[in-house]
Amino acid sequence: MTTTKNIYFTKNHEWVLLLEDNTARMGITQYATEQLGDIVFVEVPELSSETAMEEEIATVESVKSASEIYAPLSGTVTSVNEELEDSPELVNEAPYEAGWLAEIHYTDTDEISQLMNQSAYDAYVKELKEEEGQ
Amino acid sequence: MSVIADLKKTPLYEYYRENQVKLVDFGGWALPIQFTGIIEEHAAVRNDAGLFDVSHMGEIWVEGSEATSYLNRLMTNNIAAIKENQAQYNAICKENGGTLDDLIVFKLSQESYLVTPNAANTDKVFDWMNQHLGEEEVTIKNDSAEMGLLALQGPKAAVILNKLTSEDLDDIKPYHFKAHATVADIENVLISRTGYTGEDGFELYLDVDKVEELWEKILSVGTEEGLKPCGLGSRDTLRLEAGLSLYGHELSEDISPIEGGIGFAVKIKKSDAFIGQQELKRQRSEGIERCIRGFELVDKGIAREDYPIYSEDGKEIGYVTSGTKSPTLNKSIGLAMVDYPYSQLGTTIYVGVRKKKVAANIIATPFYKR
């Protein structure tokens, strides 16, 4: 996976990678894909739509269920991964790379401080896995 | 969040823990949704074979000289019409026609039947059977905790089972069974040519203490045939492709078997009167207001349980009872309870998928036929 200082995570298991010019790319984490199982349909966000942090932005569907995906940051959707329409399995295969969902031009840089960094997210997932193992 | 260890356990529970199979709360039972992946397991059953632990299903023995007439009074199908070693799909109804459960009845003899309710309904059905026991010469025994059940399903099921038994499997026709068979040196196995996947296959009822042994033996001889262990996720997608109703979805105490898509198991004219007969007879003669139908999405999306269904002019006309992306057909399919005027094949309906209305067509079931 991507090992960069510029990646952040939400409690709902979205990742967001800060690019240049206040643009961020987002997707769902490896842990999220493991929980969902085989992904068979992705409803990507609408291009140019405005979104607020933690607002529903996309839907990822496995054979079994539909899961809402929430915007990690407020802003405008500037790009969506159109490959997912025909190849939703990319989200399972490469959740941090070819399986990205959208890019957002974010407006409020303060929001980033509300997200988890890599080590905080790793610890969060470890805790969840321990709970599951009971 | 429920703690898995507190749930009811099938005889494979320790096996699942040792093999680190992820378990979920399935109606109070600790069971796997998948071993490796729903799509892979689904494909294994369609192309080769799959093995399911369905030991959570109930087993109730009904025995005695009046067992046949007693069961015929409770069940909607004609129990008197089946022969020894034959199985029959049935509904058990309340007076108002609502479905208490759907189940299979196995006739071992004129005086001995095995009835297999859904796991979540077993206690309810057992209580109902006791409540409706009059002066009849019948004994009822709930053996669910002592009996386990494995389902071996798929085109290679017979080839695999044949390696483990000297029984002539060709003699066991669909919806027939052989009791007291020996499989993998395990005695007293009931081999039934039934299933819930739309494929050929067998269901093997046996002593709970022998389930793990049989599970491992079937897997060891089946792997070279492409056999895979399968979880409840693929069981659901397989039954949905086969257009089979599932209790709690297409059937419930508020849905009659005629409405719920299993009218073929209702025999109004059989010689014994049965509970729910009057209402079911009325539904047959006067018609029903709603019914379960299959549909296929025309536009992109996936229909899920409880999504609303609309007519062309925007009227709400029903709801989705089951829906998925069919792994075999690669189409979005589902079953829905729709108002009768909209149930004709070819009718265009609209499924409310979040903020959108997605067009769909009513089509014939099964969606998939082997």
UniProtKB/TrEMBL annotation, chain A:
InterPro entries: Biotin_lipoyl, GCV_H, GCV_H/Fam206, GCV_H_sub, Single_hybrid_motif
One Gene Ontology term, aspect cellular component: cytosol
N6-lipoyllysine sites (modified residues): 64
Keyword annotations from UniProtKB, A to Z: Lipoyl
Note on cofactor: Binds 1 lipoyl cofactor covalently.
One Gene Ontology biological process: glycine decarboxylation via glycine cleavage system
Residues annotated as domain Lipoyl-binding: 23-105
Cofactor(s) the protein requires to work: (R)-lipoate
Superkingdom of source: Bacteria
Main function: The glycine cleavage system catalyzes the degradation of glycine. The H protein shuttles the methylamine group of glycine from the P protein to the T protein.
PANTHER family in the cross-refs: GLYCINE CLEAVAGE SYSTEM H PROTEIN, GLYCINE CLEAVAGE SYSTEM H PROTEIN-RELATED
Record note on quaternary structure: The glycine cleavage system is composed of four proteins: P, T, L and H.
Protein family (similarity comment): Belongs to the GcvH family.
Protein name: Glycine cleavage system H protein
High-level lineage: Bacteria, Bacillati, Bacillota, Bacilli, Lactobacillales
From TrEMBL, chain B:
InterPro entries associated with the record: GcvT (IPR006223), GcvT/YgfZ/DmdA (IPR028896), GcvT/YgfZ_C (IPR029043), GcvT_bac (IPR022903), GcvT_C (IPR013977), GCVT_N (IPR006222), TrmE/GcvT-like (IPR027266)
Superkingdom as given in the UniProt entry: Bacteria
Protein name, per record: Aminomethyltransferase
UniProt record similarity statement: Belongs to the GcvT family.
Complex and partners: The glycine cleavage system is composed of four proteins: P, T, L and H.
EC assignment: 2.1.2.10
GO BP annotations listed: glycine decarboxylation via glycine cleavage system; methylation
Domain Aminomethyltransferase C-terminal: from-to ranges: 290-369
GO cellular component assignments: cytosol; glycine cleavage complex
Residues annotated for substrate binding in this entry: 203
NCBIfam families registered for this protein in UniProt: gcvT, PRK00389.1
UniProt enzyme class: transferase
Domain GCVT N-terminal, first and last residues per copy: 12-270
Catalysis performed (reactions): N(6)-[(R)-S(8)-aminomethyldihydrolipoyl]-L-lysyl-[protein] + (6S)-5,6,7,8-tetrahydrofolate = N(6)-[(R)-dihydrolipoyl]-L-lysyl-[protein] + (6R)-5,10-methylene-5,6,7,8-tetrahydrofolate + NH4(+)
Name of a matching Pfam family: GCV_T
Function: The glycine cleavage system catalyzes the degradation of glycine.
Keyword annotations of the record: Aminotransferase, Methyltransferase, Transferase
Molecular-function GO terms, alphabetical: aminomethyltransferase activity; methyltransferase activity; transaminase activity
Name of encoding gene: gcvT
